Amino acid sequence: MVKTISIKSILSIIVSKFTIFLTKTLLKGGTTFPGHVALKLDKNILAKVSKGYKVVLVTGTNGKTTTTSMIYNIVKEDGHKVITNNTGANLYSGIVTTFIDNYSFFNKVKDTYAIIEVDEANVKYITDHITPEVITVTNLFRDQLDRYGEVYTTLTKILEGLPKVPSSTLVLNGDESLLGDLKLPNPTVFYGFNAILNENKTIEVNADAKFCKFCKSPYSYNYITYNHLGDFHCPGCGYKRAELKYSVDEILDLTPESSTVKFGDLEILISQSGVYNIYNALNAYAITKELGIKDSVIKSSLENQSSSFGRQEILNIDGKDVKIILVKNPAGYNQALDTLCLNKDSFGAAFLLNDNYADGRDVSWIWDVDFEKLHTLDINEVLISGMRCYDMAVRLKVAGLNPDLFILEETFEELTEKIKTSKSDKIYVLATYTAMINFRKHLYSKGYIKKLW
């Protein structure tokens, strides 16, 4: 039986579905334009096409796509029907496209989850039409300064959407000082680290939220995981980290390829490296536990995750082991560099820097990245590309890397050729968003990637 729906909505869905077909067939992508078309015809279409789904919204600065993928895979492994916007089309129109693409006029949605990544500034548009089961915020770092400004602006944008859905459970990063004591009516649980990574208790000069959000005193830390995340407390007003319901209680091993940790008594091998991916996995664990999924299912899924869409995606390019890592702000970049620092053997590294709108026009943030930690590593070649490759070259030279190792290639064609003839068998490609997208498109055209989106 066809569900009751207005003629305007039917037209919106049909035209959008046709547009989706055209963009997938002709453009090999295009995940936001069909949503724009649908919204032009029916501005309330999202409420109609999302009806019946149990929705989990994932937002925050870093880790959205990986966390969304982890949750999706766990829910799927538990036997549920589930959809997601796996390409990272996380603006309002892209999310509309996702729901319309999965919409059927004849089959009622039943026991189906939608695990949806959403841009921080777009949360308020989604919660106008959807009441999620769960909303999670991963962290808040400086990102795209020309769009968001400081982290407090990003927090404000997210908070514009949360009061509209007071029944949604909030799963928040407790180590993120900006997310504590939000004074919202929502049921709220926190996750974070109870394991100490190092003895450092002094926050970095360039950390993003060093001062108490209530009294502006500098935070003190029992321990820091990275940037401003950790077990914080304010000596001025007493504000401190909330009690954690879900936590990393022991770190058993950290390698350039993976991490082995304990969430409570549950030992898990996380198949993506870096402390930030431990946070992502813990977030996925917390959310799926809140959804009632068993430890055994979560463990099995997390230990068999494949990297998604430029997030530690591993490729073989003519026998070279190439790992693509998305880097888009100082906090995430420093974590990527920490992963490189775990290498005991020599390797090659490529740095791709663009300044398109989606990257942020202002690239001055690269001076807040601690590239200096690289100059002691055994790096065979330093490949540099992207629209702002010369800015990156200057930054790396100032950081102490040997300019004799620099190879600048403005085109991805030439960059790929240099990778193929590299002296290194292992090469890390650290790329900003549009550089990663365009590099993947080039590799797809050459047959090195089987699935573009």
TrEMBL record:
PROSITE patterns per record: FOLYLPOLYGLU_SYNT_1 (PS01011)
Active site residues according to the UniProt entry: D362
Domain Lipid II isoglutaminyl synthase (glutamine-hydrolyzing) subunit MurT C-terminal span(s) in chain numbering: 326-436
InterPro entries: Folylpolyglutamate_synth_CS, Lipid_II_synth_MurT, Mur-like_cat_sf, Mur_ligase_cen, MurT_C
Swiss-Prot/TrEMBL keywords: ATP-binding, Cell shape, Cell wall biogenesis/degradation, Ligase, Metal-binding, Nucleotide-binding, Peptidoglycan synthesis, Zinc
Swiss-Prot/TrEMBL catalytic activity: beta-D-GlcNAc-(1->4)-Mur2Ac(oyl-L-Ala-gamma-D-Glu-L-Lys-D-Ala-D-Ala)-di-trans,octa-cis-undecaprenyl diphosphate + L-glutamine + ATP + H2O = beta-D-GlcNAc-(1->4)-Mur2Ac(oyl-L-Ala-D-isoglutaminyl-L-Lys-D-Ala-D-Ala)-di-trans,octa-cis-undecaprenyl diphosphate + L-glutamate + ADP + phosphate + H(+); beta-D-GlcNAc-(1->4)-Mur2Ac(oyl-L-Ala-gamma-D-Glu-L-Lys-D-Ala-D-Ala)-di-trans,octa-cis-undecaprenyl diphosphate + ATP = beta-D-GlcNAc-(1->4)-Mur2Ac(oyl-L-Ala-gamma-D-O-P-Glu-L-Lys-D-Ala-D-Ala)-di-trans,octa-cis-undecaprenyl diphosphate + ADP; beta-D-GlcNAc-(1->4)-Mur2Ac(oyl-L-Ala-gamma-D-O-P-Glu-L-Lys-D-Ala-D-Ala)-di-trans,octa-cis-undecaprenyl diphosphate + NH4(+) = beta-D-GlcNAc-(1->4)-Mur2Ac(oyl-L-Ala-D-isoglutaminyl-L-Lys-D-Ala-D-Ala)-di-trans,octa-cis-undecaprenyl diphosphate + phosphate + H(+)
MF-aspect GO terms: ATP binding; carbon-nitrogen ligase activity on lipid II; tetrahydrofolylpolyglutamate synthase activity; zinc ion binding
Residue sites binding Zn(2+) per the record: C212, C215, C234, C237
Biological processes, Gene Ontology terms: cell wall organization; peptidoglycan biosynthetic process; regulation of cell shape
Domain Mur ligase central: 58-232
Recorded metabolic or biological pathway in which this protein acts: Cell wall biogenesis; peptidoglycan biosynthesis
EC number(s) stated in the UniProt entry for this protein: 6.3.5.13
Keyword set includes Metal-binding: yes
Tagged with keyword Kinase: no
Pfam family, one: MurT_C
HAMAP family: Lipid_II_synth_MurT
Family: Belongs to the MurCDEF family. MurT subfamily.
Functional note: The lipid II isoglutaminyl synthase complex catalyzes the formation of alpha-D-isoglutamine in the cell wall lipid II stem peptide. The MurT subunit catalyzes the ATP-dependent amidation of D-glutamate residue of lipid II, converting it to an isoglutamine residue.
Quaternary structure and partners: Forms a heterodimer with GatD.
Name the UniProt record assigns to this protein: Lipid II isoglutaminyl synthase (glutamine-hydrolyzing) subunit MurT
Organism: Clostridium gasigenes
Gene this protein is translated from: murT
